[in-house]
Design goal:
The complex is a heterotrimer of chains A (254), B (184) and C (356).
Chain A lengths: L25 H14 L6 E5 L14 E4 L5 H11 L4 E7 H7 L1 H9 L5 E6 L29 H4 L5 H5 L5 E8 L3 H19 L4 E7 L3 H4 L3 H15 L3 E5 L9
Parallel strand pairs in A: 1-2, 1-3, 3-4, 4-6, 5-6
Antiparallel strand pairs in A: 5-7
Chain B lengths: L4 E9 L4 H14 L3 E6 L9 E9 L11 E6 L2 H7 L3 E10 L13 E5 L1 H8 L5 H13 L4 H11 L8 H18 L1
Parallel strand pairs in B: 1-4, 4-5, 5-6
Antiparallel strand pairs in B: 1-3, 2-3
Helix pairs in contact in B: 1-5, 3-4, 3-6, 4-6, 5-6
Chain C lengths: L3 E4 H11 L4 E4 L7 H12 L3 E4 L3 H13 L4 E5 L1 H17 L3 E7 L15 H5 L10 E3 L4 H18 L2 E7 H5 L1 E4 L21 H4 L4 E2 L6 H21 L3 E4 L6 E4 L2 H16 L4 E6 L1 E3 L3 H6 L6 E6 L5 H9 L4 E6 L8 H16 L1
Parallel strand pairs in C: 2-3, 2-4, 4-5, 5-7, 6-7, 11-12, 11-14, 14-15
Antiparallel strand pairs in C: 1-8, 6-13, 10-12
Helix pairs in contact in C: 1-2, 1-6, 3-4, 10-13
The chains are: A alpha/beta (254), B alpha/beta (184), C alpha/beta (356).
Chain lengths: 254, 184, 356
C-alpha cells in the first residue's frame, strides 16, 4: 500500500516534544508561528525571544536562533537584536504576566519607538508556570491562587486590555487580537501572524498579535470546558479584532 | 610656563563662563605638551548657583588633581571670593571682578588685582566677555602663557557662526592684560 | 599623535568607538551623561547603533540581545543605575555574553548624591545579581589609563565571553585631561562568535540559543563549574596593579582610582619628611590583585587602606593579608574627596603610634 504524508509537524519547530499541559493553546500558537515563518521563508533569518512563564522553554521548540530573556524584558532584548541585525526577523513570545505586568515598560516603549519587531502575546488571564496566580488580565470574579475568593475590583482594579492600550501609542503599527478556539479562528489567527511578519519585512514598525488563550490546569477546567469558558468570558471582555493598522494604504511604501 | 606647577581656581555664578576660562587654559597647556587637569563643579549647583573649576598645569605628571592650596584664584562673585580666598597659598594671586564685589577685607598676605570687568565688557558690547577680560588679566599677572597661545585656542573654538565673536574676545583679553599692566 | 584635551566621560565614549563598539544602549543619569550625549551623534557618524532606552533595566537587556546577536556592546550608568542593571548582568554572565559596562560612581546609598565616590566597590566586585558569577572589573587612575582600559575591555569581554566593568568615580568622568586615543593597546586573539543567535541559522546550518536556564541541578552545577574555570583563568591572568615606591617602603597605602592619585601626592610629602611609604594600586578590582601583596617587601609593616567609601576594598585587603600585617583604614564617604594632607596625617599617625 502506498502511504502519503498529508500532515506533519512544521519544520519551523524542533523535534523536541512540547512540554505544555494537555489542552493548552500554546501548542497551536507555536505551530502557527512556526508555519508562518517557514511559509514566508523567514525561519532561517529569524531570532525568537523566549520570555519567562510557561513559554520559558520555547527556545527549545522554535527551530531558529533563539534568545532567552529575563522576565518581562523580551521587547528590550528584541530591540537590541534588531538594532544590530536589522535584516534578521525578530519576534518575542510572551505571556500576560510577562508582558502586561513586569514587562509593561518594555512593551510600551518598544511600541513607542516602533521597533521593527513582532510580538506574539499569549493572554490566558493567569500566571501559569508559577501555579495560577492573579495576572493584570485576570477577570473580575476569577479565582486564582492569589485571589482565592475571585478577583475584586476594589483591591486589584479592572483587567488590563493590552491591545487597546497599545493602540493609543503613536508608534505602534499593527495590533490585532485573535483566538484559537476553533478551526475558523485558527485560520484567522494565522492570517494575523502573516500580516504581523509582513509589517516587519516591509520595515513598517511594531506589530503585536494578542491571542486569547486558555489554562485548563490553573482554571480547574477540562480542555473543552476551558475553550468554552474562554469564548464566553474572555472574548467578551477581550474582543477580537484589529485595534490598530497604520499600514493601511501604505503597503507599497518602505 | 615659568614655574613647575600652577594651580588655579576659576569661580563665579553659573552662566558667567567660568568653566570656559579654565578650559581655555587647559587647552593651551595641552597644546604646549604640558600636563594638565581641569575639574569642574557639577550638578544642580552649576545651574544658576555658584560654579567653579580648577586647573592644574605641570611640567611633570600631576598626582592629586584636587587643589588644596591654590597658586591663583580668579573670582567673579562674592560667594566665590568667600569660598576660595582662604584656599590661596601665601603670596598667592587673587583676581576679582570688582563689578560684583565692592568692599572686602582682603587677606594681607596675598596679591589682589581688581578689575571692573562687567563695565569693561559692556563697553566692548557684550557682558558675556567679562570672563575673557579676567582671563587676560590672569595671563598678564602670571605671565604663564602669551596671549597668542590663547588666541590659537579661540580660533579653534569660535568657528562657523561663532567666528564673529573672535574679534570681541581678542579685544577682551587685551583689555584685561592692559588693565593689569596699568595697575602695576 | 599629539594628545587631545577631553572630558573623562567623552574620552571613554570615544575610546569605546575606537575599541570597536558596535552599539550603545543607555539611560541618562548624572555624572555620566556626557557618555550617551557624545555617543548619540558619534555612533551614528560611524554607522553604529545608539539607543536611549526607557530605563537602565531595558538598556541592559538591549545589551543582552545585541550581544547575543554577536555585536560588541557598551552601556554606561552611575551607581543607582548600575543597581538596576544587576539583573541583566547576572543573566549575561549566566548566558556567557560579553559586554562592557562603565560605572561612573557617585555617593549613596539610595539616591545619595552626585559627587565622586567609591562606594560601589562591593556592588561591582560582588555584584547585586543572583548566582555564582563574577565580572572582570577595572578601576583606572588617570584618563590616559581609562582610555586604554576601555579600548581593551571589548577584547577582554569577547575573549572571556563575560561582562567587563570599568569603574571610575565621578571625578574621572567629569575632569578634563590630555589623552592619547591613537595608542594601540594589546589585542587578544579572538575566536569567531560561532555561538551568536543573530538570525543566521540558515547560513550556519544549525540554530544557536542564548540561555541561562538549566533546570536539571546537575547540569546547572556543571555549567557553574565551567564558569568557575573561566573565573579562575581571569584570577590567574587578569590581576593588574602598580607598585609605587614600594622597594624600601615600611608603610603601604592601598588605594585605587582617584584616591591612588591623591595618595601619590601624600607619598611625595611624606618621603620629603623621611617616611618610607609607598602605594599598592589595584587596577583590577576583580580579580583583586593578591599577587601585589605577595610581592610586597617584608619591610612593610602596615597597610593603610584609603578609599572614598567607609571600608569596602578594606575587606579584600584583610582577606589577602590574612593577619600578616597591621591594617589601618582611612575613608571619606558620600561624595567627599579626600585631600592629600588627610592621608599624610593618617600615615604620620601610624608612624607616631609605632614610636610610642
Amino acid at each position: 500500500m502506498k502511504t502519503q504524508t498529508i500532515y506533519q509537524k512544521s519544520s519551523g519547530l524542533t523535534a523536541r516534544a512540547l512540554t505544555y499541559c494537555p489542552g493548552c493553546t500554546h501548542g497551536v500558537i507555536h505551530k502557527l508561528v512556526a508555519e508562518v515563518l517557514v511559509e514566508k521563508g523567514l525561519l532561517e533569518t529569524a531570532v525568537g525571544i523566549a520570555s519567562v512563564g510557561c513559554s520559558v522553554m520555547s527556545y527549545e521548540f522554535f527551530n531558529c536562533d533563539m534568545q532567552q530573556a529575563a522576565h518581562g524584558r523580551a521587547p528590550a532584548v528584541a530591540t537590541g537584536i534588531k538594532r544590530v541585525r536589522p535584516d534578521a526577523t525578530v519576534f518575542t513570545y510572551q505571556g500576560d504576566g510577562d508582558l502586561a505586568s513586569i514587562g509593561m515598560a518594555e512593551i510600551v516603549h518598544a511600541a513607542h519607538r516602533s521597533e521593527n519587531v513582532t510580538v506574539i502575546f499569549v493572554n490566558n488571564a493567569i500566571y501559569g508556570m508559577t501555579g495560577g496566580q492573579m495576572a493584570p488580565t485576570t477577570l473580575i470574579g476569577q479565582k486564582t491562587t492569589t485571589s482565592p475568593r475571585g478577583r475584586e475590583q476594589a483591591q486589584t482594579g479592572l483587567p488590563l486590555r493590552m491591545s487597546e492600550m497599545l493602540a493609543t501609542v503613536p508608534g505602534a503599527t499593527y495590533l490585532e487580537r485573535v483566538s484559537v478556539h476553533d478551526p475558523k479562528h485558527i485560520r484567522k489567527a494565522k492570517k494575523a501572524i502573516e500580516k504581523a511578519f509582513d509589517v516587519q519585512t516591509k520595515k513598517q514598525g511594531f506589530s503585536m498579535i494578542e491571542f486569547v488563550s486558555t489554562c485548563p490546569v490553573n482554571w480547574g477546567l477540562t480542555p473543552q470546558d476551558s475553550l468554552e469558558w474562554a469564548v464566553e468570558n474572555l472574548i467578551s471582555y477581550y474582543p477580537l479584532g484589529v485595534f490598530k493598522d497604520a499600514t493601511a494604504g501604505e503597503d507599497h511604501e518602505n | 610656563m615659568k614655574t613647575n606647577e600652577e594651580r588655579v581656581i576659576f569661580a563665579g555664578f553659573g552662566g558667567q563662563g567660568v568653566m570656559l576660562m579654565g578650559q581655555m587654559l587647559a587647552y593651551i597647556a595641552t597644546d604646549e605638551a604640558l600636563h594638565t587637569v581641569w575639574i569642574p563643579s557639577y550638578g544642580p549647583e552649576t545651574r544658576g548657583g555658584t560654579a567653579n573649576c580648577s586647573v592644574t598645569i605641570a611640567k611633570q605628571m600631576i598626582n592629586s588633581p584636587i587643589i588644596t592650596e591654590a597658586d591663583s584664584a580668579v573670582v567673579l562673585n562674592l560667594p566665590s571670593l568667600q569660598k576660595f580666598e582662604p584656599r590661596l597659598k601665601k603670596n598667592g594671586l587673587l583676581i576679582v571682578n570688582e563689578s560684583a564685589i565692592e568692599q572686602y577685607p582682603y587677606r594681607q598676605d596675598i596679591r589682589v588685582l581688581s578689575l571692573d570687568a562687567n563695565r569693561m565688557a559692556l563697553k566692548l558690547g557684550n557682558l558675556k566677555v567679562a570672563n575673557m577680560i579676567m582671563l587676560g588679566a590672569y595671563l598678564e599677572a602670571t605671565g604663564i602663557f602669551p596671549k597668542e597661545a590663547l588666541f590659537k585656542i579661540f580660533k579653534k573654538t569660535f568657528t562657523g557662526s561663532k567666528e564673529t565673536l573672535l574679534e570681541m574676545n581678542y579685544q577682551a583679553v587685551e583689555l584685561g592684560m592692559e588693565t593689569v599692566r596699568n595697575q602695576a | 599623535m599629539a594628545k587631545v584635551l577631553m572630558k573623562g566621560n567623552e574620552a571613554m565614549a570615544l575610546a569605546a568607538i575606537k575599541g570597536g563598539c558596535d552599539a550603545f544602549f543607555g539611560y541618562p543619569i548624572t555624572p555620566q551623561n556626557e557618555i550617551p550625549e557624545y555617543l548619540s551623534t558619534h555612533m551614528a557618524d560611524h554607522g553604529r547603533v545608539f539607543v536611549q532606552a526607557e530605563s537602565e533595566v531595558a538598556a541592559i537587556n538591549m545589551v543582552y540581545g545585541a550581544s547575543g546577536a554577536g555585536a560588541r556592546v557598551l552601556t554606561s550608568s552611575s551607581s543607582p543605575g548600575i543597581a538596576l542593571k544587576q539583573e541583566g548582568i547576572s543573566y549575561m554572565a549566566g548566558s556567557e555574553l560579553p559586554c562592557v559596562i562603565i560605572s561612573v560612581m557617585r555617593g549613596g546609598p539610595g539616591l545619595g548624591g552626585i559627587q565622586p565616590s567609591q562606594g560601589d566597590y562591593n556592588q561591582i566586585t560582588r555584584g547585586g545579581g543572583n548566582g555564582d558569577y563574577h565580572v572582570l572589573a577595572f578601576a583606572p587612575e588617570t584618563l590616559l589609563e581609562t582610555v586604554d582600559i576601555v579600548k581593551q575591555a571589548f577584547d577582554l569581554a569577547d575573549y572571556y565571553r563575560n561582562p567587563v566593568m570599568i569603574a571610575v568615580d565621578g571625578l574621572i568622568g567629569q575632569m578634563m585631561e590630555p589623552v592619547d586615543l591613537d595608542k594601540k593597546p594589546p589585542r587578544k586573539k579572538l575566536k569567531p562568535k560561532d555561538w551568536a543567535a543573530e538570525g543566521l541559522s540558515g547560513v550556519r546550518g544549525h540554530r544557536n540559543t542564548i540561555v541561562s536556564l538549566h533546570l536539571d541541578p546537575y547540569e546547572l552545577e556543571k555549567h557553574n563549574l565551567r564558569l568557575k574555570k573561566k573565573y579562575d583563568e581571569m584570577v590567574k591572568k587578569e590581576q593588574r596593579y602598580e607598585m609605587i615606591r614600594m622597594d624600601d617602603a615600611e608603610i603601604a597605602i592601598v588605594a585605587y582610582g582617584s584616591v591612588a592619585r591623591i595618595a601619590r601626592s601624600a607619598v611625595l610629602t611624606l618621603r620629603e619628611k623621611g617616611i618610607k611609604v609607598g602605594i599598592i594600586r589595584p587596577l583590577s578590582i576583580w580579580p583583586f590583585p593578591e599577587k601585589a601583596f605577595v610581592e610586597t617587601p617584608d619591610s612593610v609593616h602596615t597597610l593603610l587602606v584609603a578609599e572614598m567609601s567607609l571600608g569596602q576594598m578594606l575587606q579584600d585587603v584583610k582577606i589577602v593579608n590574612n593577619g600578616q600585617r597591621t591594617i589601618k583604614f582611612y575613608g571619606r564617604a558620600g561624595g567627599v574627596v579626600p585631600e592629600a594632607e588627610e592621608i599624610v596625617k593618617e600615615v604620620q599617625k601610624i608612624v607616631r603610634g609605632r614610636q610610642s
